[in-house]
Design brief:
heterodimer; A: 811 residues; alpha/beta; five-stranded parallel beta sheet; 25 helices; 39 strands; B: 110 residues; mainly beta; four-stranded antiparallel beta sheet; three-stranded antiparallel beta sheet; 10 strands; 5% helix
Chain lengths: 811, 110
């Protein structure tokens, strides 16, 4: 007698089981197929092309009525299964029960719904089945849709709707799209191409509430207060195996239904397959392993031996124009190496991960033609020892090209600005070269490019080389570090010229040859980005040297020093008491008066930092930034308040300047001083910026130093009023911030651009001075604040160990 | 090998590190990518610098005191410097960081 097989769920996995089974043994089973959806098996992963209009539903139906009829499968579609009775071996459907000899559970998964307030409003949907797809297809131009989730499914939904002219915003909680499959560089390129399609992308965005009106969704509220209006809200944040039926039937379940290597559940007559199962601790969302499982189930049902093994997976995003490929494993392991290739002009990024002469992972964007070849190498564990040097160029590579360090410049459009001082574009330079300008001097003479501050010199030379080829001999310039061939000046100009606003953008567009830089370039790039894009770029603490990350100076024994700010060197008995109390309370071994007119508490333990800051904050004391590449102190003398020689209120001016400048970052440390008369007790003439008061006004001089090099300042200008003195100091600070090379003190920058250039831009050109002041103020609207208070409030727990095993009771 | 749960992946900043205190000294958990962690001793063999305070790049960390760079896979110092840090087995299960139980609870450096 024929065995009776009941299948619950007509999805892609069970569909594949039925194909194998009825192909191999058409008469082995009497098959009944239940499905809660009122239809048979269709290719669910092709819903995205249906959504975007590239396919119709009919085209993605895998099994139509005729197919089921031909294989004599009894279909009970649109009928929910109420329960499984394992003792009686019967499945209870809504329209009557069916007995079984073998049962296959393929209940799939449920979309995960974030329990935000308002998640049950009308117009809040998941992206799972044809009904959801049809609702999205109902949107058109004039509609707004928010998609929560920047993974594969969320992005396909967004792109599909955007193709119909819908105004789509994707809200993603992580800092990088598809962070499970992609690294930052590929994530950055993906974001860029989606934005080119008109999709808005909010990263690191936490959803707070779904706002409704009359029972229908109206907007999504983020926890930073942003309100995103929408007519439809799609949640695509993940799936959960649907284990309800199995659990009620008493089968072993965890995150999914537990199955062994033969896909058998804890009951020897019940199999499970697909997204509802858990195998060896893993659950499944991609189709490839589900098909492998289906093959195993079919063979096991026929009494043949088969074992399900997990294999390396690859991912492709089904969005037209976003060419992306990810495969294999990027997790840790001994002896792992990266090979990175970037071609900024084509928007290409490739990264291969190699372990012991085997390829174990690959991420590609922009050019994925070699994806399946790499995937094959990963799956087969082929030794790549012989082809290691040329591996990244793919199978077609036969000697020849290597990555071109000039490609970043070659890729610039002709209208890209090269020289900011004189407004010269790449096109002007190329024209001049074609008209006969064969070297830097000639280009300068005919276009003025690099003739002013000179920071774009490297770029002009590269344009010469790209245009003239071997006819131009490139002078050797020092690159930032081993990650790039570009100099600091090149990188700075390209960040501005190409509007690069994230580190991932810099690494990709400028062709970095490492995945995420090194300890040399990361702090520099982080500084350039925050100085050039104060509003758009968010400071990255992990790209900062420990002192700036922890807002304290690390000492040789790993403890820290804490220096509260004393504005202009003025303090009060209350502040001194608070400092003394803190020194007592935290067992500070050394208390020292610094050269910058304040008090240093040396030897504070790292984990005590938030507590000591909190105590100092309570007395009104804030960070002195004694650790920063930025404003340190403004040293003052007592000026007219007490001194019989004083000509102006030097203390007052010093305090004003410090209150304006504090918190600002700069290429290197920035020290100021204000002396009340030419006797110069505040030693203003060996500071980065010094002000010496005279009867007729204020002499501002710059470029001093008293460290490895001792330099006397040079006079920049004399101004009659305090207000103008403040303006000039702000403007020169901003000019240095915008033009200086990271880790160049102000005098080094001055040596490169020349006093004449600075005077022209900061003193003589009043319009430019005002613009510099305005840009400085804009940046300070973000950075003029106490980092200690912020860390006490938001980050205190990060100063403590994540776990402490010394606290457990002694054995 | 048995594993002990030491925390959630998001407690360690991307390209940063956090410390675990044990009887044999501090172990640093480094997070080199969204879902990639390493564990190694916190102390630089050169001058005892705290590696958890260093800049994390690729699968390496740079000591904050004198810029020695260590490969977190092998523990070997890179470039001209000669030295090695002890690494410990660590893995991710979902979002949880699991450390080799022996490393966490050993009472003496045997």
């Amino acid at each position: 007698m024929k065995q009776r097989l009941v299948v619950i769920g007509a999805g892609m996995a069970s569909g594949r089981v039925l194909e194998h089974l009825t192909d191999a043994a058409p008469d082995a089973f009497d098959i009944t197929l239940f499905n809660a959806e009122p239809r048979g098996n269709y290719n669910r992963i092709m819903l995205s092309p249906v959504l975007s209009g590239e396919k119709t539903y009919e085209e993605i139906v895998t099994h139509d009525d005729a197919w089921y009829a031909e294989r004599r499968i009894t279909c009970r579609f649109g009928e929910k299964v109420a329960r499984i009775d394992r003792e009686m071996k019967v499945v209870d459907g809504a329209n009557g029960h069916v007995p079984y000899d073998k049962l296959l559970i393929a209940t799939g998964s449920n979309p995960f719904v974030i329990p935000l307030p308002g998640h049950d409003l009308d117009g809040v949907i998941a992206y799972r089945d044809l009904e959801d797809t049809r609702q999205m297809m109902g949107m058109g131009p004039g509609n707004k849709v928010v998609v929560i989730g920047g993974g594969l499914l969320g992005l396909e939904a967004a792109a599909g709707m955007a193709a119909h002219g819908v105004d789509v915003t994707v809200v993603h909680i992580m800092g990088n799209l598809m962070e499970r499959q992609l690294d930052e560089a590929a994530g950055y390129l993906l974001k860029k191409s989606l934005e080119d399609k008109g999709i808005k992308i909010c990263l690191q965005a936490n959803s707070k509430e779904i706002i409704g009106q009359g029972g229908k969704v109206r907007a999504l509220l983020l926890d930073d207060g942003t309100e995103l209006p929408c007519d439809l809200l799609v949640m695509a944040v993940g799936i959960r195996p649907n284990t309800a039926l199995a659990q009620e039937a008493g089968l072993a379940t965890g995150r999914g239904i537990h199955v062994d290597d033969q896909m058998l559940t804890s009951d020897p007559d019940v199999f499970a397959v697909g997204e509802c199962v858990e195998h060896d601790g893993e659950i499944f969302g991609l189709v490839a392993p589900l098909y492998d499982q289906a093959k195993v189930v079919a063979m096991a049902l026929l009494g043949e031996e088969a074992v399900f093994e997990r294999k390396t997976l690859s991912t492709k995003l089904k969005v037209t124009g976003c060419d992306l490929f990810s495969a294999g494993d990027f997790a840790e392991g001994p002896e792992r190496e990266d090979i990175v290739f970037r071609d900024p002009s084509r928007g290409v990024y490739k990264r291969l991960v190699i372990e012991e002469d085997r390829l174990v992972g690959a991420v590609m964007y922009g050019d994925t033609a070699d994806g399946s070849w790499f995937f094959g190498l990963i799956k087969d564990g082929t030794s790549i020892e012989e082809m290691r040097e040329t591996l990244i160029f793919g199978p077609a590579y036969q000697g020849g090209d290597t990555a071109d360090p000039l490609s970043a410049v070659a890729a610039l459009p002709l209208e890209a600005e090269i020289c900011g001082c004189n407004g010269v574009c790449k096109g002007n330079i190329v024209e001049a070269i074609n008209a006969g300008a064969g070297d830097l001097g000639a280009v300068r003479a005919s276009t003025k490019a690099s003739a002013s501050c000179g920071t774009c010199t490297g770029l002009v030379e590269q344009v010469l080389q790209v245009t003239l080829g071997d006819d131009f001999q490139m002078p050797t310039a020092q690159p930032v570090c081993g990650c790039t061939d570009l100099t600091h000046e090149d990188v700075r100009r390209l960040i501005k010229g190409q509007e690069l606003k994230s580190q991932a953008a810099v690494w990709q567009e400028l062709g970095w040859n490492t995945p995420n830089g090194c300890h040399v370039c990361r702090p520099a790039i982080n500084y350039y980005l925050l100085a050039d894009w104060p509003l758009e770029y968010q400071d990255d603490p992990q790209s900062r040297f420990v002192n700036e990350r922890k807002h304290a100076n690390i000492q040789k024994d790993g403890t820290f020093s804490v220096v509260p700010r004393m504005w202009g060197g003025i303090t009060t008995p209350e502040e001194l008491r608070a400092i003394a109390d803190a020194a007592d309370k935290y067992d500070v071994p050394t208390v020292k008066v610094t050269g910058g007119q304040r008090i240093d508490l040396l030897g504070v333990k790292g984990e005590d930092l938030p507590a000591i800051w909190s105590d100092l904050n309570k007395a009104g004391l804030v960070s002195g930034h004694a650790y920063s590449k930025g404003l340190r102190t403004v040293k003052t003398c007592v000026g007219t308040d007490h001194c019989r020689f004083g000509t102006q209120d030097s203390t007052g001016l010093g305090i004003k300047l410090e209150k304006i400048l504090w918190g600002s970052w700069a290429p290197h440390k920035l020290k100021l001083a204000v002396s009340g008369c030419p006797r110069n007790c505040a030693e203003a003439t060996c500071k980065d910026i010094g002000v010496v008061c005279v009867d007729s006004g204020f002499q501002i001089s710059i470029g001093g130093a008293a460290g490895m090099d001792v330099k006397e300042t040079e006079l920049l200008c004399q101004v009659p009023t305090e207000d103008e003195a403040i303006e000039v100091v702000m403007a020169v600070t901003q000019a240095y911030r915008e033009g200086g090379k990271y880790l160049d003190r102000l005098y080094k920058w001055m040596g490169k651009v020349g006093m004449g250039w600075i005077r022209g831009h900061v003193v003589d050109d009043l319009e430019n001075r005002a613009a510099l002041v305005e840009r400085f103020e804009l940046s300070q609207s973000i950075y003029r604040k106490d980092p200690w208070a912020e860390h006490v409030r938001d980050k205190a727990q990060t100063y403590a160990p994540i776990a402490d095993f010394t606290l457990e009771a002694a054995e | 090998m048995s594993w002990i749960d030491v925390g959630h992946i998001d407690e360690v900043p991307l390209r940063g590190a956090r410390l675990i205190k044990t009887h044999i000294g501090c172990i640093a958990i480094f997070r080199t990518a969204e879902a990639e962690v390493f564990a190694a001793t916190n102390n630089c063999p050169h001058k005892d610098g705290p590696l958890s305070e260093g800049i994390v790049h690729g699968q390496s960390v740079t000591c904050p005191l004198h810029n020695w760079v260590f490969d977190l896979n092998t523990g070997e110092a890179q470039g001209a410097d000669d030295g090695r840090i002890t690494t410990y087995p660590v893995r991710l299960e979902g979002s949880r960081i699991l450390l080799d139980d022996k490393a966490a609870t050993r009472r003496s450096a045997a």
